[in-house]
Amino acid sequence: MEDFSEFVDLARGYSNVIVFDDTYLSFDLPEGIEPELFQDPLKAEFWQILPEVELAFCKIWTASLPA
Length: 67
Description:
The protein has three helices and two strands. It is mainly alpha-helical.
């Protein structure tokens, strides 16, 4: 990202925002943008970084269960 406004524009497009650097967290963020900081991405669980993959797996798994 080049600047704060680019960060805000990108963050508005997602329901969950995860950051690995606190560069823009010291700014006054617009309402509705509450990024979660992971200082060490290697310690984060996969589902925390890509929750959509976890949700898609659950949806596929439950759809395959017998009725």
